[in-house]
DNA sequence: TCGCCCATGTAACCGGTTACATGATTCA
DNA sequence: TGAATCATGTAACCGGTTACATGGGCGA
């Protein structure tokens, strides 16, 4: 269901677009929030056409089909935003590693945490770059006076920073305990 | 793959357990990090037995099979924790709603944010209750001097608090803009 | 003309969810 | 004896990923 919504959202933002455009759009803008490859998008667009949520507005060169959203599609999108409770189950590999971490020796656990941390630093850099590039290009505002995608980007940035803080604290906590218990000086 | 790991982790913590126990264990302890129903767990245990990661230690009343982890299983778990990069794609319905929110009228957007907020408050309460109950029952410590699952719980709590903060700020931001633009007094 | 990008699709597979199905044990 | 819980399994389905397959247009 959410794939539909994401497609309807992008189509609203773009006005009209081909499956190819939407695939690229996924990579660029929605990527850190939702992912989908072309092999998922093309069949979904076909189904959505059958359901009357989008229409093939025109057919361009080399089989290119240009889709646009219909009033029914707009209604569906609006209904989902207003009415859908996001109950999506949280399945996180990072959290699972965190969960199981105490099964390891402290030294090993510290290594894992360091790796997680650098992973998060990488992601933070990515999101910050994205924000910078969005600020440069002045995307048109939407009704709420906030740019499309900005709220999600802000949320993502905060969450990554929180995770980083958590990793630092966990490292400190375990590091402190090992040096206390063993009476050994940290390297 | 991660289902295997979670099962191996629980088996390590429990010593030995039946599929039924593990199903309940999922509901109780790993739930906010990873979910799995019995219909997924039973076949997976069968496969893991075939792969030599667990063994049926004994068969109890009414067909109850008691599994325990093998040295190979322990090795697999350790290898995953130490070596696996958690690249699991972030697919979040909350983030998707956040992303698309600027497509709505400010008033409607505010409603959605309020609903998201109360959702998060609910989850926060849940996690805090879980932490309280864990503190009461003194679960045995593991090698790192941190209790099994505690790091993940801490991470979860921080993330929910961050999300809540985000929702509050987003509400303030949009609310401010609407009242400024319209010159109307907030209800 | 050769290679790259545009552009669309299909098929096999995998992990996960929901629903179907069955039977033993325990307790009121 | 009837209801609840213990206990295990299978099957249909759905969303998503990877890989396969094809062909048009454009620029060097």
Termini Cα gap of chain A: 52 Å
Whole-angstrom Rg of chain A: 22 Å
Sheet with the most strands of chain A?
3 strands, antiparallel
Helix content of chain A: 55-70%
The sequence of SSEs of chain A as H and E is: HEHHEEHHHH
Task: Please provide a written account of the structure.
Chains A, B: This is PadR family transcriptional regulator. The first copy, chain A, has 187 residues and is mainly alpha-helical. Chain A has two domains: 2-83, Winged helix-like DNA-binding domain superfamily/Winged helix DNA-binding domain (Arc Repressor Mutant, subunit A, Orthogonal Bundle), CATH 1.10.10; 93-182. The first copy, chain A, is 66% helix and 7% strand. Chain A contains seven helices and three strands; from the N terminus they run H-E-H-H-E-E-H-H-H-H. The first copy, chain A, has a three-stranded antiparallel β-sheet. In chain A, helix 1 packs across helix 2 (19-30), helix 1 packs across helix 4 (71-83) and helix 2 packs across helix 3 (38-50). The radius of gyration of chain A is 22 Å and the shape is elongated. The relative contact order of chain A is 0.10. Chain B binds a DNA duplex (28 and 28 nucleotides) through helix 2 and helix 3.
What's this entry about, in short?
Two copies of one chain form a homodimer. By secondary structure, chain A is mainly alpha-helical.
